[in-house]
Design goal:
Elements lengths: L2 H6 L6 E7 L5 H12 L3 E3 H11 L2 H11 L6 H12 L7 E5 L5 H10 L8 E6 L2 H9 L1 E3 L6 E3 L26 H15 L1 H9 L1 E6 L4 H11 L5
């Protein structure tokens, strides 16, 4: 039995984890690994929004021009999206939130879903230097068919410009263009960094050095949710 299977078979109270950090800090990768390890859903507002845009839903039509310019989607829309998702049956044992909340207003809306109590939640603040964030984000490429993500230098496809899974040409998302990336980081500094102070006072907030190999970061995450390697 592997490490993850052994842990999933152990009785435990519901676990609720939030990842906070700049775009490009590696939140999505680590959130997915931790959710799989714990046996709970990873809830990515970014993925849900991109799916809504691709499907042409009313929310997608509102979000598309905003995301294309590197702007944040309004708080109320995201709160409603997350509220609906976290009430599904697969979230009964907890969940890992990736990309939400990004503002104190969103954090307050999330707390209301839990009757205002978040003291038993774990909040990971993933820290990465700005220069490294710019390198990571501007080098990302994406498969529009299967949603796989690559990086030109750190995780390139086997064939340049083509997805390994389905042969689809890779594209650069509008929100990963260098000028948009700079705007996203500026918005993060202005609107999202206050979350660190908010959660430091209310939850179990842990600062994680994200400028390390993925395995080292993941080992820290497991340790702080009460799991040893």
């Amino acid at each position: 039995m592997d490490d993850a299977s052994a842990h999933q078979g152990t009785a435990r109270p519901p676990v609720r984890v939030i990842f906070v950090g700049s775009p490009g800090a590696g939140k999505g990768t680590q959130a997915a690994k931790l959710a799989e390890y714990l046996g709970v859903p990873r809830i990515s507002t970014g993925d849900m929004l991109r799916e809504a845009i691709a499907s042409g839903t009313p929310l997608g039509k509102q979000a598309d021009p905003l995301m294309g310019r590197g702007n944040l989607v309004p708080d109320d829309l995201l709160i409603a999206l997350v509220r609906e998702r976290t009430t599904r049956e697969d979230c009964a044992q907890g969940f890992v939130l990736d990309g939400f909340p990004r503002t104190v207003r969103q954090a307050e809306g999330l707390a209301q879903m839990s009757d205002g109590e978040v003291s038993d939640w774990t909040v990971f603040s993933v820290e990465v230097p700005r220069e490294e964030l710019l390198r990571r984000l501007s080098g990302r490429r994406w498969c529009p068919r299967c949603q796989a993500t690559y990086h030109l230098t750190s995780d390139p496809p086997k064939v340049d410009g083509v997805c390994d899974n389905d042969g689809e040409p890779l594209v650069q998302r509008d929100d990963d263009r260098e000028e948009v990336v700079a705007r996203r980081l500026q918005q993060y500094a202005a609107r999202t960094e206050p979350l660190i102070g908010y959660y430091r006072e209310r939850a179990d907030m842990v600062e994680i050095d994200g400028n390390r190999p993925m395995a080292a970061v993941f080992a820290d995450l497991k340790k702080h949710v009460g799991v040893t390697a």
